[in-house]
Amino acid sequence: MAELLTRDLTVIAGKATLVRAANLSLRTGELVALLGPNGAGKTSLLRSALGLEKRATGSALLNGADSERLSPMQRARQVAYLPQQRPLAWPNTVRDVIALGRFAYGAAPGRLSAADAEAVDRAIGVCDLSTLTERQADTLSGGELARVHCARAFAAEAPLLVADEPVAALDPRHQFRIMDMMRTFVNDGGGALVVLHDIALAARYADRMVWMKDAEIVADGSPEDTLTTERMAEIYGVRARIDGRSVEIEGAI
User: Fold this and answer.
1) Residue 144 scores a pLDDT above 70
2) Could you tell me the residue range of the domain that residue 212 belongs to?
3) Number of domains, the chain
4) pTM, full prediction
């Protein structure tokens, strides 16, 4: 079982506390939604948990190893990371962008081993991109490009996936497509931690919901246990109607 674990993790920038004493876990076999308003500390928590942002106190372990001490290749073999900003530095074909997911194994576009090529082909199939492999990535729609970035992450064949707002700015159909792929990845034995702003989408797909506000984790549990009208008011300042995993936002408080 692969595991990402933080204990009392605190991140400070200047005089601002971005994350305060956060206890977070991700294991294979679960899809975890990380929720909270803008500025709650979600991205800093993810980056510090992965060892990409320095922590002030606490610990962050990736499969038992201090995440800050891992090399980029060691980290990439254990967890695939999709950040909020995913710029393409230069025009590449879709296949070459996906092949970047094999970096952890020493591969590069145009220089793939048979195993690397097979992993890329599997990711292309999972993300339904076979008709787009020779397109330039900078000519794709937002939904198509989101699937390409997911395929790049899946190509790494790491047991864990951390994705920061992978469905931002997508229409509902493409949001469902991306989350279906995340769910399939988990059902096939992976573990996914996904930052989402759509609470209904999170409730539909997540096994566990982790709620943040003002740099702190304030709740962590199943949708049935943590998704309440009181929590929606506390976290987002909105009135909501909750029926099981269904959420209807009625307005601001």
Assistant:
1) yes
2) 3-252
3) 1
4) 0.94
